[in-house]
Amino acid sequence: MIITLSGKAGSGKSTIAKELAKKLKLKHYSIGDLMRQIAKGKNMPLNELSRIAEKDKSIDLELDKKTIWLRDKNDFVIDGRLTSYFLPYADLKVFLDCKDKVRAERISKDKRSDEKSKNINELIKKIKQREQSERKRYKELYKIDYYDKKLYDLMIDTTNLSIDEVIEKIMESVSKE
Q1: How far apart are the first and last CA of the chain?
Q2: How many domains are contained in the chain?
Q3: Strand partners, 60
């Protein structure tokens, strides 16, 4: 079984993917974690790396190779913006959405995030800038908009849901497969 989780920053992709993988006893891969590792290795925040990636396609291509490498594998959960695009045959392709303020609050509490800010509105602005940068790059590289609902089997708004409630919704879809 292969499950892809895509969605907006702060919607819960990595958290849900990790917990879902544990519950289903599957491996977990995270493209977001790889992007954070690259940013950390270059000693820069994610926003800055995203801006650089607009001109330097090698950053996205490196991340995309990691996803494409999984085409020969089975039994995993993966979170990342383009996972449903690169793994279109996945058993379940999920998109997580969430209101901006809640996403910003989640990101500001995330231990992995370098996008800390005491001002939620400023953080929302940074998140939206990063997402615009990503969407622009993906349209140029692959002619794709990862917000396109046609790419997914299941759309979940996580704004008012607990982790367990989101996993329950995904499990309901898994059991229908």
Answers
A1: 10
A2: 1
A3: none
What are the residue ranges in the chain where pLDDT is below 70?
111-118, 177
Residue 67, pLDDT score: 80
Domain encompassing residue 55: 2-176
The CATH number of the domain holding residue 27 is 3.40.50.300
pTM of the model: 0.86
Q: What is the pLDDT of residue 62?
A: 81
Per-residue model confidence (pLDDT) at position 79: 94
The answer to whether 170 and 3 are in contact (CB under 8 A) is yes
As a whole number of angstroms, the distance between CA 145 and CA 122 comes to 25
Cβ neighbours around 80 below 10 Å, total: 28
Cα–Cα–Cα angle for 80, 45, 161, rounded to 5 degrees: 45
How many CB atoms neighbour CB 110 within 10 A? 15
- Residue in the block written with tokens 């926003």: 47
Residue listed under structure tokens 């993906």: 138
11: its two tokens: 């919607």
Whole-number Å distance between alpha carbons of 149 and 173 = 16
- Mode of pairing for the β-strands spanning 76-79 and 27-30: parallel
Predicted confidence at residue 2, as pLDDT, reads 95
- Dist. CA 126–CA 69, nearest whole Å: 31
pLDDT at 52: 87
